[in-house]
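Q: For a teaching handout, I want to show students what a protein-ligand complex looks like in C-alpha cell form. Below are the inputs, and the small molecule is fe (ii) ion. Please produce the holo structure.
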Amino acid sequence: MTSLAPSAASQGVWLKYHARDLAAWENMTGRVLEEIISTVGQMKGAAAAQLLREQGIERLHEVIDTEDVTALRNQVLEQLRQPLLAMAAAVGRQILGWDGDFYVDDYLILRINFPYEVARKTNPASENPGIGRLSANVRDQFQARKVIDPVYAPKDYHRGHPPAAWAHGPHIDSWAGHSRDGRNIWWAIGDVPAEAGMVLYPELADVPLPCERRTLYLQAGYRLPVPTYLPLQAGEMLVFDPEVLHGTHLNTTDATRVAISMRLNASRPTFDPACFYSREFWRRAADIERGHDEVLHLRREDNFGAPVTPAPVQTPPAVPVIAGTLDQAAGLIHGRLPATLPDTGRVIVDAAPYRIMLVRTGDGTRAYDAACPHYGVDLADGGCDADKVYCPACAIAFDLQTGKSSCPSLTLQSYDVRQDGTGVHIGVAPAVAT
Ligand SMILES: [Fe+2]
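A: Here is the structure, written as C-alpha cells, with fe (ii) ion included.
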C-alpha cells in the first residue's frame, strides 16, 4: 500500500476533502443536486422537485420508487459524465498531487440508497443501487465481454432481500476485478450519517485476507475489528485506498443516501487473474483535461499484473463455541462455560437449531441470537467493544444491553439467561405439544 497525501490522511488509508475546496469545482455538489432534482421534476412533476428543494434530497424516497432509479441514474450520469470525469481528474491533481498522466475509470456510480425500512418492501426486479454506468459508446463492447461465473452468486448472500436493501459486505476492490493500485472517490451529495455511510477497517491494511468467491466479500470465519464509521456532510468526499477492507453500513436511517463513486489509477491499470472479470474501460486524465472523449479498452487478457503469491492468511482467534444441550420440553439450553471468558468477551452456545451468543455487560450476561437479523450473518465474526457488537456484513451496531440497533426492525432476538454451579441455562420457547 502506498500512502495518500500524508498530511491529511488517516493512517495513509483515507482522507476527507470538501468538494468546494477543489479549485474550479466549488459548485459541483450543487450542480449534481440540481440535475437530480430537475430530472425528478421531469419524471414526477414540479411538486416532487419542489419538495426536494425545500426538504432536501434525503426525501427522495417520498417522490420516486426504486423502479425510477434506473432512469434517474441514466439521465444524471449522461448529462454530467464529462464534468464528473474532469472533477475526478482534478482530485488526482489537487488532492493526490499526481502531476503526470494517470487514469480515470469510465465507470461512474450514482448511489441512491433508500432507507432500509422502505427498501426492504420494494420491487425485487429493481436495480442494485451499487450499479454504475459506462460511456454509451463502450456499452456494447462491455456486454459482449460479460462473463457469468459459475461460483459467484450474490443473491444467496442477500437472503431474499430486494436489491434496493442490499449493502456491500467487507471487501477489497481487486477481489471484484479492479486494479490493485487504484484510489477511490466516494462523494456525499446529501448528508451521509454514520448509519448510512462507508466503513473501513484500517487496522487490516496490508494484512492478507481471505476472499469468498461465492460473494466476493471477506470469507466467513474471519473475526473483524470494530468498523471505522465515516459520516460525511453533503459535499464531502472520501478519497481512500480500496485495497484496504471496506464496506457499507446498511442504510438504517430514515433518509435516502445519495453519493457518487469514481476511481483513479496512478498508472496503467492491471488486473488480478484470480478474479473472473476485470474493469476494462478507462480514460487518460490528459485526454479528459483536453476535452477528448476517448475511452481505452484495456482487455483483461492483455493487462494482467505481475503474478502475486498471496501471503498466508492468519485468522484471528475465533469467539469460542461451546456445545449446549437442548431440553425441548423445558425450553432450556444447558451448557458449561469456560472458567474465564476469553478476550473476545463473548461465547457462542451451539444447540441446533439455536446458535446463541452470550455477551458480558456491565450488569451481567445477556443472551442473543448469534445471527444478524438482516442477512443472518454470524455475529461472532463481527467486532465487539464494551457497549456494542457490530455485524461483520452490514456494519450495524447492536447494543449489548438491549439487542437494539438504529433500525427498529433489526433487533437481536434475546433470551433469558442464568448461571449457577452447574453451568449456564438459556430459556428458549418450549416446543408446542402436537
Ligand atoms: Fe469497494
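A: Two things your students might notice: Residues 171, 173, 242, 246 surround fe (ii) ion (CB under 6 Å). The helical segments are 28-44, 46-55, 66-95, 116-119, 139-144, 154-157, 285-290.
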